[in-house]
Amino acid sequence: MSQAMTDDGAVRAPQQPAATTAGPDRGGKRRTRRRPGGYLLLIPTLAVLILGLGYPLVRQVMMSFQEFGLAQQFGTADPGWIGLGNYVEILTDPTTWAVIVRSVVFCFVCAFVTMTIGMAVALLMRQVSTAARIILQVSMLAAWATPLIASLTVWNWLFDQRYGVVNWLLVKVGFERFDDYSWLANSTTFFLVAGVIVIWMSVPFVVFSLYAALTQVPEETIEAAQLDGASRTQRFRHIILPTIRPVLSIVMLLQIVWDLRVFAQINYLQSAGGIRSETHLLGTYLYQLGIGQSAYGVASAVAMVMLALTLALTFGYVRSLLREERA
Questions:
Q1: Cys staple from 122: which of 8, 60, 175, 210, with CB 3.0 to 4.6 Å?
Q2: Using H for helix, E for strand and C for coil, what is the string for 116-159?
Q3: Which residues span the membrane (predicted)?
Q4: Does CATH place domain 98-294 in 1.10.3720.10?
């Protein structure tokens, strides 16, 4: 490397380029030095997640392969390893398959009706005046914030066999067969009542989520499409729906998971007069096996089947979310 001569005759060393903390990699991109401090800050959160979620999950998986009952729970006997015995027992039981089919049908019906009503109300909130929109929002927020037991008690009174308002109204309009009719004693009308309650409790969340997404739809685009002659249906299909699709997918995913795991509403209605053997869903069936019969190993196997079913039902939505994220 050549040296430079100054005016006074001294030899000046050539200037070296400034040291950089990152150099180009093979692809021509600058490599950044990763600092471990950010990862260290994640350790407390990861530890809480592992202890709070990981350990119970691993423990439940282990119990599903063991003979675990009341004696093992109190430590008077050791849990015996029986392999797939619990899974064979539940999957060869027609009751389990009836509960699974019932749960899936109830889940999809409730999720579809909830999303349809939620979308309709969210679109309505875009069209009404500010005062009407505030009234709708406050009403749904009040219904959503009402404690679960209080809501179930009110709905039980509405469908009461002797003093229910629903039976009284139906008799007044000419349906005499509903005089002293028990909605919970019949499995079909039991799930009709349960579906109404579940949908009523879920609609506010869907409405708030979809309305928030609808506020992000550009009004200029909708007005331009309207000027070009696009109908209301075309504007919804080609402008509004693609814009809110990410939020719509997430809300639908959550709704399927929640409706498949529904427990409190079904258990309350069963206690109020429903026939348990004909109205069990996965949540109440799992509760009966574990708490009612102390068959914790069998209940754990049902829980694993329930987890696998949830993953199978939501796999398509998760894959579409990942595809949209990559795009």
A1: 210
A2: HHHHHHHHHHHHCCHHHHHHHHHHHHHHHHCCHHHHHHHHHHHC
A3: 39-58, 99-122, 134-158, 190-214, 239-258, 295-318
A4: yes
